[in-house]
Design goal:
Blueprint: E1 2-7, E2 14-19, E3 22-28, H1 30-33, H2 43-50, E4 57-61, H3 64-74, H4 83-92, E5 96-100, H5 102-111, E6 118-124, E7 131-139, E8 142-150, H6 155-165, H7 174-180, H8 190-196, H9 221-248, E9 254-258, H10 265-268, E10 277-279, H11 289-298, E11 308-312, H12 319-329, E12 331-335, E13 338-340, E14 349-353, H13 360-368, E15 377-381, H14 385-388, E16 401-403, E17 419-421, E18 423-425, H15 431-444, E19 448-453, H16 465-475, E20 479-480
Parallel strand pairs: 1-4, 4-5, 6-9, 9-10, 12-20, 15-18
Antiparallel strand pairs: 1-2, 2-3, 6-7, 7-8, 11-13, 12-14, 14-19, 15-19, 16-17
Length: 485
């Protein structure tokens, strides 16, 4: 049984394939059509998927009629179905088609990729068809919704509203607001921001139109930093309250957290004091729900072997070449193996750099054309993480921001607030990246590197060898890539 899960005609279009209980392929459409956060499935993505064989079932993310009903009643971004969505039957022959609700797709993507036999699932995002938050009980193959919260209440829309207020693009640049928060004074605008979201169960405020009645002028960059700090703080307070509510009525001590809000690594760290175990699938947003749409139909756990599920450049990961480049210049780029499924590069489409350099942030931000306040993450050997970071468990997917214990030695990966968004690596998870870190540790005494995505601000992460060659030509830096396009 081969199931295609598809997110099409909604932001972060993606396609995933589950075949006989194995995830065989999962990729972002933006990596193919080169349009960040694209709404539509790209034909070249579909063509690559069909190399794994045509589907028996196509499972679409979201109930389309419910979504259009909500848009008619309350507004939202309108659009049309893509050409591929309309004509899909011509490309995939006689596959049966079905649709899975937005939040159920999120829940299935998280739970069925976890190692938990039981869990409480929390889904928080901007908005699905109508739902914006949900709590689920899961045991064995069964997922049952316990509570549902609907528009206009929304954690995600709250955060997006303040993203828009400081001049960023709502729906796509919330991660920049999160980075800005470290430079602000959360006390300055706390009362003003909290007045918009005073309780987690307040279901009256609507943030779809932003914050048009903000009472203060926004004249300086520091004003924006202070708003970001207050927004992050209020969001975290409400998230803690919501998670405590979910925990009180839970039959399980395990949490599966999904939806776009699960990408807020600053707030995620607080979950570790509420739940014994936490699983956040590395692609918890809407692109990841293409996998959830497929897994919802499959209805059982799959063995999660990692996020390297996309286009395969092929060839061995170039450990020695990357190492030599780092020794020579302190900075290098690599594109090798299968692309990561998710918004964060985890070693196969990465810029890697020496974290001990006090100038490395400026260098990498210049290359990526990013704001200088933006932070960078460390990729660290799992067996050394406790010596360098205040964390009591592995963090293989950059999902928690924790205190750095030796910030003076690795200033390149420490944010203004003293935290780092940690990625741990062990020999099983990514043996080649681990070997690179081991060689670097033997040479420098530091078991980590700076790791950031191989892209330029506003552009998708590069996908294939042609992308790597173009990136190298335009930006004048060699990308270590071995294999064919």
């Amino acid at each position: 049984m081969r199931i295609y899960g598809i997110n099409d005609s909604s932001h972060d279009a993606a396609l995933s394939i589950v075949e006989d209980g194995e995830i065989v392929f999962a990729a972002h459409s933006e990596r193919y059509n080169k349009q960040k956060n694209t709404f539509y499935l790209d034909r070249s993505l579909l063509d690559e998927a069909l190399q794994f064989g045509p589907p028996d079932i196509i499972s679409y993310f979201e109930k389309r009629n419910l979504k259009w009903l909500r848009r008619m009643m309350w507004g939202g971004i309108n659009g049309d179905y893509s050409f591929l969505y309309k004509k899909m039957h011509k490309h995939v022959l006689n596959a049966r088609e079905t649709q899975v609700k937005h939040h159920r797709s999120h829940a299935a993507a998280g739970y069925f990729t976890s190692c938990f036999e039981d869990a409480t699932i929390v889904v928080l995002d901007a908005i699905g068809e109508i739902e914006t938050a949900s709590i689920w009980d899961a045991s064995g193959p069964y997922i049952t919704q316990r509570e549902s919260f609907k528009y206009p209440f929304s954690f995600g829309l709250f955060y997006s509203a303040f993203t828009n207020l400081v001049g960023l693009k709502a729906g796509t640049e919330e991660y920049i607001l999160m980075g800005m928060a470290a430079y602000g004074d959360k006390r300055r605008f706390f009362n003003d921001v909290e007045s918009y979201f005073p309780r987690w169960d307040l279901q009256t405020a609507s943030f779809h139109t932003g914050v048009p009645d903000w009472p203060h002028p926004i004249e300086t960059e520091q004003d924006k930093f202070d708003i970001a700090a207050a927004a992050q703080f209020v969001y975290t307070l409400r998230l803690i309250e919501f998670m405590q509510h979910a925990r009180r009525d839970s039959k399980s001590t395990n949490l599966v957290f999904m939806g776009g809000c699960a990408l807020n690594c600053l707030a995620n760290t607080k979950l570790l004091s509420i739940w014994e175990e936490v699983w956040i699938m590395p692609n918890p947003g809407d692109a990841g729900s293409s996998l959830g749409a497929a897994l919802s139909i499959y209805g059982h756990h799959v063995e999660w072997q990692g996020p390297y599920l996309g286009h395969d450049i092929g060839g061995p990961w170039p450990v020695q070449e990357v190492y030599e480049s780092l020794i020579l210049d302190g900075l290098t780029a690599v594109a090798s193996g299968r692309a990561e499924f998710g918004p964060r590069s985890l070693g196969n489409r990465s810029l890697l750099a020496d974290p001990s350099s006090i100038h490395i942030k400026e260098r990498v931000n210049d290359i990526k054309h990013r704001e200088q306040f933006r932070p960078f993450a460390p990729v660290v050997m799992e067996d050394h993480v406790h010596d360098w970071f205040d964390i009591d468990r592995p963090s293989p997917y950059m999902q928690y921001a924790v205190k750095c214990l030796q910030p003076d030695r690795v200033p390149g990966i420490v944010h203004r607030d003293g935290t780092s968004r940690v990625q741990t690596v062990n020999e099983l998870q990514h043996p080649d990246l681990y070997q690179l870190l081991k060689k670097w540790h033997e040479e420098t005494g530091i078991p980590m590197l700076l790791n950031t995505s191989l892209n330029i601000k506003g552009q998708p992460i590069i996908n294939d060898s042609k992308d790597a060659e173009e990136w190298q030509r335009r930006y004048g830096r060699e990308v270590h890539t071995i294999g064919a396009t």
